[in-house]
Design goal:
Blueprint (H helix, E strand, L loop, with lengths): L18 E2 L9 H6 L5 E11 L10 E4 L2 E4 L4 E2 L7 E2 L4 E3 L2 H5 L25 E9 L9 E9 L32 E9 L7 E7 L21 E9 L2 E8 L13 H6 L2 E8 L11 E3 L4 E4 L28 E10 L4 E9 L8 E7 L17 E5 L5 E7 L4 H6 L5 E2 L2 E8 L4 E11 L8
Parallel strand pairs: 17-22
Antiparallel strand pairs: 1-2, 2-24, 3-4, 4-7, 5-6, 5-8, 8-9, 9-10, 10-11, 12-13, 13-14, 14-15, 15-16, 17-18, 18-19, 19-20, 21-23, 23-24
Length: 448
């Protein structure tokens, strides 16, 4: 795509040009103070609109298989509210622009596991691929693990007292639609392909929140989720796959008699878990959540969110069940080879039904996420883009069709100095790019 206008945006009243991600000293989280670092700068460059030609309702899962870039947008499986979905398909191309321009009719439907009957073991509910991890032990590049977002209802996953899995259809909150329908519950799972994404096998769950943590009537009036974990992004570092996800459940057992909005808020926002790469073939029960000191909380237990990414109550932060919102969600994480740091994009919920017109960005300078509290060392989110009157979902940074990006086989998980910003106008039902993000390394401090 051409960059015909090449003009810089005025970012939310900030001066034109480079924008530092480092907030005023008085607003910096204590974890940033302890790092004593200067954070990168960024700016948006407006381009011609680049329309994505197919359905997107998630992070963009993509991978290079040989010299082919392959993407996996869309939704698949049973959904009693929205209807059975067959939109999880893939497209391929020689570069990002080519594959993102693929007409919808040229997408290919892979073979995916069928939904199991209600009450029987197996895949239940609908799935969206959010990240694809490529097994580095396979030199052909054809062994892939898809990290998927999975949504269920009491109808598709009724409560099983023997296993504790599933949901009780009692005092259930309302969902996203305009008609009277139940709220969904997300979980996160793993599928595997050994042929580059043509055929997939379900391997099991990575994370889930159990029924006792669901937030019910009368307190849940957000028209989002009843609870659960979802909207993930995952990156591999060392022997582990690190999962960034939204936590929407109560941090403990929900009891309407003792419910506290402050307590709910304290356990929500963007959280992190990890699993050994060797456990991806049999993930259930192997993932571990961050508990405030390390990755010690079990896969279905109560973890602790990244505190620097939470919106303080004093700044209108609120729990996910609130009708006024006040939390970040939908992380998309990439390693930036130019900055030599991690970059996270995220949305912001400001009201019922996932309403929010702003996108945010955060940085983490520590390549080794497993050391100490490195995985939690994210800068306070800074405004990246605001579109008044619109609803913005699923921001991600994507490679260009530049010789550098093609040679490096960059994807949404690994990028350089310049990357294309995609996001979904949920109110318009369109996924597109109108900007390129340019990054610059921190300006050295002049203080002695």
């Amino acid at each position: 795509m051409t960059n015909s206008r090449s003009r810089f945006l005025l970012l939310a009243g900030l001066a034109l040009g480079w924008t530092s991600c480092q907030p005023p000293k008085s607003e910096q989280a204590s974890i940033e103070d302890s790092l004593q670092i200067q954070l990168p700068q960024f700016r948006l460059v407006e381009t011609d609109t680049f329309h994505f030609n197919n359905f997107v309702d998630c992070n963009m899962a993509e991978v290079w298989v040989g010299d082919t870039l392959r993407i996996f947008p869309g939704k698949y499986g049973e959904d009693p509210v929205w209807g059975y979905a067959r939109d999880l398909k893939f497209a391929s191309g020689a570069n990002a622009d080519e594959v993102f321009s693929t007409p919808a009719e040229q997408y290919i439907a892979p073979t995916l596991p069928k939904n199991a009957p209600v009450g029987q073991p197996g895949l239940h509910g609908a799935v969206w691929f959010e990240t694809v991890y490529q097994d580095q032990r396979d030199t052909t590049g054809r062994t892939l693990y898809a990290i998927y977002h999975n949504e269920n209802y009491p109808e598709t996953l009724p409560f099983n007292p023997q296993t504790g899995e599933g949901y009780k259809d009692k005092d259930w909150p309302l969902g996203l639609t305009d008609r009277i329908t139940p709220a969904a519950v997300p979980r996160i799972g793993v599928m595997k392909s050994t042929d580059g994404g043509w055929n997939w096998e379900n391997k099991g769950l990575f994370l889930e929140d159990k029924n006792e943590r669901m937030i019910l009537k009368p307190h849940n009036t957000s028209k989002t989720f009843a609870g659960g974990v979802g909207d993930p992004s995952a990156v591999a570092v060392g022997d582990y796959l690190y999962l960034f996800y939204g936590e929407y459940g109560y941090p403990g057992k929900y009891d309407p008699a003792t419910y506290s909005a402050e307590t709910e808020w304290s356990g929500q926002c963007i959280s992190i878990a990890r699993i050994k790469l060797d456990d991806l073939d049999d993930p259930q029960g192997k993932g571990m959540r961050w508990d405030g000191k390390g990755f010690n909380a079990p896969w279905d237990g109560v973890g602790q969110p990244v505190s620097s990414l939470q919106i303080p109550r004093s700044e209108d932060g609120g729990p996910a069940s609130s009708p006024t919102g006040g939390f970040h969600w939908g992380p998309s994480v990439s390693w930036n080879t130019h900055l030599e740091c991690w970059v996270m994009l995220m949305g912001k919920v400001e009201g019922q039904s996932w309403v929010g017109d702003e996108l945010y960005i955060s940085f983490n300078p520590h390549r080794e996420l497993g050391e100490g509290n490195n995985s939690q060392a994210w800068s306070k989110p800074q405004l990246l883009l605001k579109k008044p009157g619109h609803v913005l979902w699923y921001p991600s940074l994507q490679p260009l069709n530049s010789p550098e990006d093609i040679a490096a086989k960059n994807t949404s998980l690994k990028l350089g100095k310049r990357a294309r910003l995609f996001f979904k106008y949920s109110d318009l039902g369109k996924y597109m790019s109108e900007y390129i993000v340019e990054f610059e390394k921190p300006i050295p401090s002049q203080n002695p």
